[in-house]
Amino acid sequence: MTTTRRSFLTASGGLAAGAMAGALTASAAAAAPQGTVIEHSLIPLPYAFDALEPVIDAETLETHYTRHHAAYVNGLNATERALAEARAADDMSQIQSLSRQYAFHGAGHYLHVLYWSVMAPPGNGGGGDPAGLLAGQIAKDFGSIEAFKTQFSAASISVEANGWCALHYRPADDRLLVLQIENHQNLTPWDVIPLMVIDVWEHAYYLKYQNRRGDYVEAWWDVVNWPRVSANLEAARE
Ligand code: MN
Asked: What is the distance in A from the centroid of ligand 1 to the CA of 84?
């Protein structure tokens, strides 16, 4: 890694605790007749590309962030521009395709921001076990930390094709739940707030683990930033 790149990654401090909403805030341009068009951007990572070694190798992290995540940001921007142009032209002939792209790229951007934010270097913010409020809530809703990890790992490993596994909080009944996500936007129940996600698209692990998704999932526990996940729960319960 070059000094320049490392400086870039740490220049603005990355993602501070509780900054998810701010991290996803895009800059607004002046309102136009077709509505305000905003420009989403790739936010700085809160660590260097090699910071999650050996769980996630530097090449995978750099490619994942600079190419895959960036593609969703670009796709989201392109979709919003196309929608604005469609409104300006009073032409809704492509609305079904644009709606699908909007969900795919928008969810792709959001989930990657959450994924980067809930990881930290192993032994230096990453790994160990949840504590405090989060530990109590997991024990209440899953029986034990181990039972939760078993369910989350099994769900992660068995996502069909490309997708994610998420720990969500459901405000309606004050409950945590684990759900699979296909692509970025499918199997979504809507009445939940995501607290933690693991990316199980092949691009997240294939260079190092090849087809052994299970090895990646088991190793991933060593980079989970539990204090951050706990802060997400506290924010969700407010
Ligand atoms: Mn990804």
From this structure: 27
* 184 Cα–ligand 1 center, Å: 9
Q: 126 lies in a domain?
A: no
Same domain, 14 and 62: yes
Residue 73, domain CATH: 1.10.287.990
Indicate if 144 and 106 belong to the same structural domain.
no
Rg of the chain taking only CA atoms, in angstroms: 18
pLDDT by 10s per residue, the chain, length 238: 333 333 333 333 344 334 444 456 565 555 566 888 889 999 999 999 999 999 999 999 999 999 999 999 999 999 999 999 999 999 999 999 999 999 999 999 999 999 999 999 999 999 999 999 999 999 999 999 999 999 999 999 999 999 999 999 999 999 999 999 999 999 989 999 999 999 999 999 999 999 999 999 999 999 999 999 999 999 999 9
Backbone angles phi, psi at 214, to 5 degrees: -60, -35
pLDDT in tens, 30-40: 556 688 888 99
58 Cα to the center of ligand 1, angstroms: 14
In the structure encoding, which two tokens stand for residue 107, read together?
């969810």
Residue with tokens 């490993």: 157
Residue 69 DSSP one-character state = I
Ligand 1 centre and the CA of 129: distance in Å?
25
pTM above 0.90, yes or no: no
Ligand 1 centroid from CA 185, angstroms: 13
Distance of CA 208 to the CA centre of its chain: 20
Alpha carbon of 17 to ligand 1 centroid (Å):
21
Pairwise CA distance, residues 149 & 143, whole Å: 11
Whether 145 and 100 map to the same domain: the answer is no
